[in-house]
Amino acid sequence: MPISGDLGDQQAALVGQTCFEPGEAKNTYGTGCFMLMNTGEKPVESRNGLLTTVGYQMGKDRAVYALEGSIAIAGALVQWLRDNLGMIAASPEVETLARTVEDNGGVYFVPAFSGLFAPYWKSDARGVIAGLTRYVNRGHIARAALEATAYQTREVLDAMHRDSGILLKTLKVDGGMVFNELLMQFQADVLGVPVVRPRVAETTALGAAYAAGLAVGLWSSPQELKKNWQADKAWEPRLAPDAQQKCYRQWLKAVTRTFDWVE
């Protein structure tokens, strides 16, 4: 059997999400979180804490480049609530617990357990839960834990905007956490753009299959693959812009509290 496709993990997900045009982006929600944005045939050197990477190259076509932002702790924070604190018995229960409250109660959870990755790259940072009062309960902490993934994604997207000058219109999402509908709605709210989950959530495997299929002639072009991609569900932003900015400012303030903790 010929080897017909060879793609890295996140690059394969970019192809699986058919992000073939500059400015199209995908975010994979797993133990960590990995966002890639297509920047076209010229590499964009990041000055805002991102990685410049090759996205893909199909046959003799020119290589297509991407900006990548890596977040260390996403789904791992839910696992931490389950295993270290015993707040939930299984990871999917975090959404039910978070829905017992209307908002985060002023709590922000920055999971810098092993330092901060993109866009900060601070190995001496450590996690904090900020804004605690006697009013706060388990539901607020669960909600803040989910919101942490959305806020970290917003920080990466802001860095991509500054590097590329391209404004995102839609974020395609995949990975285990995309079935948490509370998180996906809040992700759309904090980004201010629609968030779309595809019918095939295992986009890494799909992207490898797409690349191999193009190589052997099963599909004729990336445009044909775009027709094959189908959306399962989309979330539109609901949060008013001023409320969105206020919440995000509080998050950024909480992030600064993690800096320089390890002496």
Number of helices: 8
Count of beta strands: 9
Q: Class by helix and strand content?
A: alpha+beta
What is the H/E string? HEEEEHHEEHEHEHHEH
Sketch the major β-sheet: 7 strands, mixed
Tell me the overall shape: globular
Low-confidence stretches: none
Q: What share of the residues lie within helices?
A: 25-40%
Strand content: 15-25%
Mean pLDDT: 95
Q: Over all CA atoms, what is the radius of gyration? A: 19 Å
N→C terminal distance: 55 Å
The spatial strand order of the largest sheet comes to 3-4-2-1-7-8-9
Task: Describe, in plain words, how this protein is organized in 3D.
The protein has 263 residues and is an alpha+beta fold. The chain is 37% helix and 17% strand. It contains 8 helices and 9 strands. It has helices at residues 9-16, 75-83, 93-98, 138-164, 181-191, 203-216, 222-228, 241-256; strands at 25-29, 33-40, 51-56, 64-71, 108-110, 128-130, 171-174, 195-198, 231-235. It has a 7-stranded mixed sheet with strand order 3-4-2-1-7-8-9. A two-stranded antiparallel sheet has the order 5-6. A hairpin with a 3-residue loop joins β1 and β2 (33-40). α1 packs across α6, α2 (75-83) packs antiparallel against α4 (138-164) and α4 (138-164) crosses α5. The chain starts with 8 loop residues before the first helix and ends in a 7-residue tail after the last helix.
